[in-house]
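Example record

The entry below shows one chain as it appears in the dataset: sequence first, then C-alpha cells.
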Amino acid sequence: MEYKRVEITDAAKEVLRKLKEEHGELIFHQSGGCCDGTAPMVFEAGEMYLDDSDVLLGQLDGVNYYMNEEQFEFWKNSFLTVDVTEGRGSSFSLEISLGLRFIIHSRLLTKEENEALNGSSDASGLFILDGED
C-alpha cells in the first residue's frame, strides 16, 4: 500500500485550479516563518527559492508541496490535509487576492503509515497507537 503525507480537499482543489489557470505552474510551501507561520502558501513556480533544506512531501493536483526541513521535524509524524477558508491571511500566497486562505488540518500518522513513511514507528522509537492495538 502507498502512503501519503499530504492531501487536499475538493474545495481547496477548486481554488488551486483557478490559481493554476491564472498563474500557470505553482508550488505549495510551508515554512513556519513569519506572516502566517505554518500556513501552506502557494507561489508561482520559480518565484520562491527552494534549496536542500526543503522537503518534498507530495503532490496535490499536480502541484508540489514542500516544507522546510526544520518544520518537517515537527510535522513528520503527521498527515496533513490542505483546505481553504474565507478570510485574508497576512501572507504573500496567491489565494489571498480571492479573499481566501489555505489552511491545514492534521492528524497523527498511524503506526503503519509511520513505519512506511519514516522507516520506524516515530522519531523516538515509540509506537503511535492507532486504536487497533
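Notes for this example: The radius of gyration is 15 Å. Helices lie at 10-23, 69-75, 111-118.
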